Design the sequence.
């Protein structure tokens, strides 16, 4: 890892970042990360959905420069907020991020994930003075045939479920705006596609670790719909560090490449079932698993999903630092500290700082 914390700090101190989705799991971690580096973060997001959430537990509304509760579908409020913040960078994380929820609310999913992204792009085009943007999508944007191959950035986009498809549409919109408007105006916007992130502070429903901890705390059996599905697991700090490097490279070198994968090493590609075994080991526990069929007749989710991140390694000198065992260990430790009512902000900050030691 070439960059140490001081190197990052030299670049980010005083930089203004407009971050959508700052109240979410990844958004909260990124807010804490940027804040540690001395960046001035303006967050724009809906209120956290979960009763317990990292944003409120870490009291981030007091830590950030500005925290705005707003919907990315509200074009006028979004534009006014960006104009007032006058940021150096826009990072767009706000999303409806659950596959199952996308089947329940497909229209809402497209409005947030596709039209919300188009709102960001159009505002960048209209304002013209913000030159750097990062749109966070997902590893699920690829047309997946469930064969054991690693997807590269230039592979075909697709998506059979509304979530994946809406994110693929967002990718196409970025490509369109880059070619139709941004090249001429020298505005640089890229997308980042990362794997299944895990870490302390994720309390969302229908995600494996939050579901596990709910089962653990309530002494209930864990319901899994695809226990044998293989996913590219990684600790949340790994891709966030990649996003920072990508934004720095964008600022210094004016990248023309549109998309970057941030996936883990091959050894981190594990089945859902094997992840549960690892967590049980960390908690000296044995949460029982129940396999349950999905309620949706045409429910479709990839059985195998893996990313090729050679491009990020070559251009950004980035690669996953933590093994899946270390990622599970850190996540388990975070939740143990949470259960003991330790300072959530300090726990999270310490794990970020330790990443560079």
Sequence:
């Amino acid at each position: 890892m070439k960059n140490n914390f001081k190197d990052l700090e030299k670049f980010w101190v005083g930089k203004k970042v407009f971050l959508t989705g700052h109240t979410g799991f990844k958004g909260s971690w990124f807010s804490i990360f940027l804040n540690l580096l001395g960046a001035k973060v303006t967050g724009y997001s809906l209120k956290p959905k979960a009763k317990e959430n990292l944003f409120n537990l870490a009291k981030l509304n007091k830590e950030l420069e500005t925290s705005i509760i707003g919907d990315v579908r509200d074009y006028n409020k979004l534009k006014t907020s960006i104009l007032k913040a006058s940021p150096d960078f826009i990072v767009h994380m706000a999303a409806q991020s659950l596959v199952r929820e996308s089947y329940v609310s497909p229209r809402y999913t497209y409005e947030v994930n596709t039209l919300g992204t188009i709102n960001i792009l159009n505002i960048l085009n209209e304002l013209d003075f913000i030159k750097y943007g990062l749109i966070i999508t997902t590893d699920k944007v690829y047309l997946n045939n469930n064969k054991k191959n690693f997807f590269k950035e230039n592979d075909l986009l697709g998506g059979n479920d509304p979530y994946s498809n809406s994110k693929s549409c967002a990718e196409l919109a970025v490509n369109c705006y880059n070619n139709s408007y941004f090249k001429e105006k020298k505005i640089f916007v890229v997308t980042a596609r990362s794997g299944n992130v895990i870490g302390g502070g994720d309390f969302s429903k229908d995600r494996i670790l939050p579901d596990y901890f709910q089962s653990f705390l309530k002494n209930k059996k864990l319901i899994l719909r695809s226990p044998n599905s293989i996913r590219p697991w990684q600790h949340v700090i790994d891709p966030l560090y990649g996003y920072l490097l990508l934004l720095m490279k964008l600022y210094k070198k004016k990248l023309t490449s549109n998309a970057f994968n941030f996936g883990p090493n091959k050894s981190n590609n594990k089945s859902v079932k094997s992840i549960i075994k690892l967590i049980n080991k960390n908690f000296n526990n044995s949460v029982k698993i129940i396999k349950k069929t999905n309620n949706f007749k045409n429910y479709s989710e990839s059985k195998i999903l893996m990313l090729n991140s050679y491009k990020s390694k070559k251009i950004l000198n980035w690669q996953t630092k933590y093994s899946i065992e270390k990622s599970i260990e850190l996540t388990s430790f975070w939740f143990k500290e949470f259960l003991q009512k330790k300072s959530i902000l300090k726990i999270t900050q310490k794990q970020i700082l330790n990443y560079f030691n």
User: Anything to note?
Assistant: The longest strand covers residues 188-194. The chain has one domain: 14-354. The two ends are 10 Å apart (CA to CA).
